Sequence to fold (743 residues):
Amino acid sequence: MSVAADTIPAKPRRRLPGNVRIKAFAYLLVAPAILLICGLVAYPFLFAIWVSFTDMVVGSVGNFVGFKNFEYLAGTATFYSAIWNTIVIVLVSDVLKLGIGLGLALLVHQNLPGRGIFRSFLMLPWAMPAFVAFLTWRVLYQPIGGGINLILTQTGLYPEVIDFLGSRSTAMGSVIVASVWRGFPFWFISILAALQSVPKELYEAAIVDGASTWQRFWNVTIPSLMPVIIVTTLLSSIWTANGFEHVWLLTAGGPSDATMVFPVLAYYGMQTQRIGEAAAVSVYMLPVLGVLVIFATSLMMRREE
Amino acid sequence: MTDSISNKWSRRRVLATAASGVALAAATGFPMPALAQGKKLTYWGGLIFSDDANKLLSDTITAWGAANGVETEVVMINQNETTQKVSAAVSSNTMPDAMDTGLGLLRLLGRQNVFSDVGALYKKIGDAQGGWFSGPDTATDLTADGGVARIGIPFGVNGNLLLRRKDLLEPAGFTEAPKTWDELKMQAEAVNKAPVSGLGLALSNVGDANLQVAILQSYGGRIADDAGKTVTLDTPETREWLAWVKDAWDKKLFPAGNTTWDGAGDNQAYLSGQAAFIANTGSVGIAAKKDDMELFEASAFSPLPGGPKGIVSPIDVQLRAITKASPLQAEAMALLEHLSSPEFMNAYFNVAIYGPVLADQEKLPAFDGTNTILVGLLGLAKNGTAPAYPDVNNAAFADFGSNFIIPKLAQRVVVDGWDFDRAIAEAQAQGQAIYDKY
Fold:
């Protein structure tokens, strides 16, 4: 061995070019994170898509059935109710959250006494666990003994008991009100943060130019807030469309299909132990949510740049 | 000082201590040859409303393990999450050695060959305790599924009993329980005065509302034909049942909100004094006995009423099963035999809300007549109808029920104001789409 070592000249070590080595080292450093993301995000995501194309039930891996689950869902009236209701909840609650969040942010942005406490107070709905918040709303909506009906009947504002959650005409509105109550603080705090970053010089310049309060709001405040409003709208839409608790805890999708939304429909699929169908419900939502996610992400990245 | 002593020895604590004592005594009374040294037997127990029953089960298994040199681990599972947990466990090959399960899940997993054959143990327990009641015996025979006949050991029967407010009904002249659904409606109407609603029955997308399936069947309606393939909702009998529901709705006999109740809606309505009648498994009676003795004493239990075609009072059976992949087959069998012992089951029936499954269990002190809930459950065990009867109890029927097609049919009529023909046509189409999958 030692003879061979002496006689064979050592090969010069081939080294990778510097920039390649740096890149390789960088990839090596991020590899654990990539593996983690693949394991915790990509795999379950892709697996759910695969499951939606199978007839998997509890206890079996399932067989590939093509678009059968999607065809079955598309043939049910409940599915179309879920599409419509999801759109209604997202659109109406986003508009209301925007209005309330913007209004309160403008109010709290003023130099008023006690605004710090008021600001914290407004965050309470968001800080409260969703489970507690929506069960509380359920109690408030109760026909007998519920707070809202008590106020309406005792004050004489409306003499008859209203079945807020059990009537088709009021169920959706009731769910939206509870959802808005829980979600508006996110809008409020996002808009307030954006308001505080609007340069004062812009307002001063507008005043010098003789702009009225309304003109300053419309031409300075709103354009400055617009990037935040768009991102908040997108995030809120994604969360509302994916939201489960607000509907499940208040109405479980009823009465009839009046408040049925995609996440609740998917949960019913799980209850029937047909996992393939439940996955198909979620996968139906993917294209729309995917577009929203991509749009929101690109906007946020652009803002960071 | 007196207070602290009374707190320490509350009724619950006395009961729990007594139960633990029974568990220990029973465990040591059934010694098992030394087996499974160094292995752990995992048992998934199904959580029920009674904390005492949950504790008794857990303590008994632990005591049995200690007495027989088997390390045990008892995990109590919320039964609303059993499907999800079992699904994950089957996929990841982490099923427990033995578990509590409902009949539906047992059948489903049975088709996947998940559970062991317990036929010999089933026979042994039956022979030793006077034989199995015919209801649970028939319901748990899975021969028709094409696999092994017995993959679970029944331990309790549950189903709906009619719970009524005697204190309201007797002054109105109704001393007897209603025998028919029409009679029930008549009695409910007589006491229907705010804040009390006559009929505390759910019409929402929840399991309790599937009581309407039994009512429909008692009117002669059927979900599907005898082959269990073709949905047969478009019949005069379905219209007759719908007319019963609509009439009760128009008379405002149902409590407001019952179309969106969750699983506890009827319980809350009764316990808060807002319903004169409810159909319930007995959990409400247990709760009333514990928290509102006055209400409990003012309540009476009776079998479900019947329709023009008789009484349909479906039973559900709870079972214990052993997973085929378990390396502790002998130990699990011994545990299941131990959990079927009269000593344990007597203590368990006293704190749980299940009816008996074995003929000799009728003679246990638990069923001596002092506990009116258990008397009702005994009647259910002996006279209840098989799950799905008169329909075929197949996977399509279970899927149909899980999609709440019949409660939704009722909702279409009472909430959306659809006419019977339109509502039935939708339910027929939805139901057939479900049956076509199988």
